[in-house]
Amino acid sequence: MPHASDAARRRALADFVRTRREKLDPAAHGFTDLRRRRTPGLRREEMAQVAGLSATWYSWIEQAREMALSASAVSRLAQALGLSPAERAYLFDLAGREDPHPPAPDAFPPHGALARLVAGMTEPAYVLDGTWTAQVWNAAAADLFRGWLDGAAERNLLRFLFLDPAAVALIPDHAERTRRVLAEFRADTSRHLAEPALAGLVAGLMADSPLFARLWHAQGVLGREGGLRTFCASDGAIRSFEQVTLAALPGGRTKLVMLAPAVADGGLEPVAAPFFGPSESA
């Protein structure tokens, strides 16, 4: 017996497709017989024709009947409905299919309000795009992330962690952190790994970093939950932060990452300790 949530998803899909169909202009799609139309937009059979679907199958979609739509059929439907990138992603989610032609990663306006907000923060903060490449960061982040955000080096977080020796010196628990970050990256980008930018990034790291290749084949998956992060500061002390990651744009893939100084149990001062060298695991 179908699960109740499946029925709710099919009903949501039916309602969404119907409302978008009713917003379409028949004349713009070559239908000039506008007499005796009882509802706005295209008729169901007209919508099916535009989308390259059978009238029966299209009717079943709007009737929320149990059926299996291919990814290519959902793609044709999205194109026929003239959906925005966010609407297209929503349609594929409701249909339970992976988009074979996903929109490009959201672009980040380097001089927008978010950039001004980051620049005004006193604690380390930076913005990652859909490939986990830093697009903007503040002075505190540049001071903390030596070798990544303080010069003209590689701005991609994965390439920095796996290919730059500065990352090992910066992060005391480098081995564990790289494992966790890569598992978070997989979870975050799993629906978009066919995109040329992401596919090229993964292929390049597979070729250049044996550690990346080993961890990637391990199939680790974790949510980006934040938590305690430690770094070796330029003065040799260990600085500890609580990391918070926020999605900067609804439906987008840009992320705002902020680091708040950690406090000792029951205290108000940031946690700091002398640094005597990289951990054995790193």
Description:
- This protein has about 280 residues and is α+β, with helices and mostly antiparallel strands.
- Strands 1, 2, 3, 4, 5 and 6 form a 6-stranded antiparallel beta sheet that branches.
- A hairpin with a 5-residue loop joins strand 1 and strand 2.
- The longest helix is centred in the N-terminal third of the chain and has 18 residues.
Please describe the topology of this protein.
Layout: H1 4-21, H2 44-51, H3 55-62, H4 71-81, H5 85-95, H6 113-120, E1 125-128, E2 134-137, H7 139-144, H8 157-163, H9 165-170, H10 174-189, H11 196-208, H12 210-217, E3 227-232, E4 237-247, E5 255-261, E6 272-274
Antiparallel strand pairs: 1-2, 1-5, 3-4, 4-5, 4-6
Can you give me a brief rundown of this structure?
With 282 residues, the protein is α+β, with helices and mostly antiparallel strands.
